[in-house]
Amino acid sequence: MSSPQTARSSPVIFLLGPTASGKTALAMHLADIFPVGIVSVDSALVYRGMNIGTAKPDATTLEKYPHHLVDLIDPVDAYSAARFCNDANAAITEIHSQGKTPLLVGGTMLYAKALLEGLSEMPPADGEVRAAIEAEAAIAGWPAMHEQLARVDPVTAQRLNAGDSQRIQRALEVYRISGKPISSLQVRDKQAADFPFFPYRSLKIGLLPGERAMLHERIASRFDGMIAHGLVDEVRRLRKQYALDPAMPSMRCVGYRQAWRFIDGDINASGLRETGVAATRQLAKRQMTWLRSMNDVESFDCLRADLAEAVTSRVKSFLT
């Protein structure tokens, strides 16, 4: 294990941005120029067999540009921010040992934030409490549960969509178990200035659109491409291969949730597209909110024509 002093001199690059901002293509461009090892920061790419709806690089691309933390688990399994931190730190150590610079690429800002700032102590899940919340939600609806959360934890409620049942449930569960808002438990004491929690010299690049409407066009085009390339058939295949249900984290991923509803006949083809594009836009909005709240992020307009050249220049100055 490297000493704190050695770690502080070791470089790590983050390339973060919302869906459809061009992160993967830019990462591969950087890998053609610099000796880097790519580490995925994406909560959906960890699932095997979920390729189309996650925009996972194909096998040929992954062979040329190996990615750490891709295809780790089956869709019936769960992955957590805590496991990500362990896996990412192991990947960073391995890449440094090869004389390369870790390039952490993705849009799961919770994972990036947890890696950079650490995870707070959260109470474990409680089946009885969770069941009680689900029973209440079945009667009152998740918007009402969101209002309930706003009364006890306005900070968390403000950043959650009223339909985000999974996170609303967890926030209410934490409050009922601990008596404390989840937002207060997520606040971590500042580390000593001479030894930050993330003990590496880091460059954080954020890709944000100068015109949100253009990002929305990219999102719609990409979702259309997923449908055309067999997203629905992929979900059908996964449902046959695994004992899945729509409440599992893997099937709650954007695109998969909507494809599941289409297969079950809850929505038609136009509804699949409409709800899928809308959900992806909402995801991008949350990702951008998270990204703007992070410290020391250097933002680049992901729509600019010279994006690759601008980011390459910044990376070069960071590494030299």
Describe this structure in words.
By secondary structure, the protein is α/β, with parallel strands linked by helices. The protein is about 55% helix and about 10% strand. The chain has 15 helices and 6 strands. It has helices spanning about 5-10, 25-35, 60-65, 80-95, 110-115, 125-140, 140-150, 155-160, 165-180, 180-185, 210-230, 230-240, 255-265, 270-295, 305-320, and strands spanning about 10-15, 35-40, 65-70, 100-105, 200-210, 295-300. Strands 3-2-4-1-5-6 form a 6-stranded parallel sheet, with helices on both faces. The protein is globular.
What is the C-alpha radius of gyration, as a whole number of Å? 20 Å
Strand portion: 5-15%
The overall pLDDT, averaged over residues, is 91
Q: Looking at the structure, what is the overall shape?
A: globular
* Structural class by sheet pairing and helices: alpha/beta
Q: Major β-sheet, in short? A: 6 strands, parallel
